[in-house]
Amino acid sequence: MAITIKDVAKKAGVATSTVSRTIQDHPSISEKTKKKVRLIMKELGYQPNLAARGLVNKNTRTIGVVLPVSDGAAFQNPFFLEMIRGISKTCNEKKYMVAIASGTTEEELLESIRMMAKGGRADGFIVLYSKKEDQVIDYLHQENLHYAIIGKPYQYENEILYVDNDNQLAGKDAANYLIGLNHQKIAYICSDIDEMVTAERLSGYQQALSAANIVNDPTYIVAEAFKDTEHKQQLASLFLADEHPTAVVASDDIVAMSLTHLLKDIGLSVPNDISIISFNNSIFAEMIQPALTSIDVHIDYLSSQVVEKLVEFIEGRQTIAMKVILPHKIIERDSCKSRID
């Protein structure tokens, strides 16, 4: 197992920040402590990454943007594309460059990030997702690298920078919007339930139903809905049943768009038969027919804020972990209709 900065700190009996500042030759650390830490580093065979050294000399003025593990679907997702565009725009304004880290497996993605960090090719990283048991976050945290997350983290929440919406409240608002249209049979359909954003929106949906005295029917919660033909057939069966949902909270615009096509294939129309509200207010929300009612999470603001805050950490103007929570707004279009009993 590779020696980490935490191993050095433990052996030397100091904080990881002390080891980091020793690597940077920071004047706040005494020469006695620096000598002790350097001896431990040599004894353990710890090789500090070049990015950390660059902080004292000159940084690379490059930020690594980490996409989720994907066989290419992430590059077709408008949320990630719009995030990359927004991050690039703000980086350009601050004279930073952007490098993309991606992989078809978690191991491949992690190796890509390791190469960027150890090779001194990035001063910090922006992770565009948050999921359970993520080796990428563990690595970035253990190596004491500068990084920020889009979304509420599953771990280290009080130790890192993250920028997010209140997705639990957004999920509640989405469900309440449909309840306000006299819908009682409301489904929640998503792709990956292990992603924090999806789980938070689901929690808000469930809270709204409970507050309205609507039973939370577990058969109305469908994850990995479009994973393969079998999952699509199961979803179709849900809407062909006698007691089928009359409305759907879709976890994002891509799920909503796929659902719209599936419903059309089985002879149901949006919004006459099924109402749909989704999230992100991406370009797809306007392109599909009928246009989607979607919750705008202000991607431009998310992307600019995460860059601005991360650069403050990279340049030493901020040292305390923080979270930035941004507002959301329902954009009404044509995919929802009041239900008349």
TrEMBL record:
The HTH lacI-type domain, residue ranges: 3-57
Swiss-Prot/TrEMBL keywords: DNA-binding, Transcription, Transcription regulation
Cytoplasm found in the keyword field: no
UniProt xrefs under Pfam families: LacI, Peripla_BP_3
GO molecular function: DNA binding
SMART domains: HTH_LACI
Protein name: LacI family DNA-binding transcriptional regulator
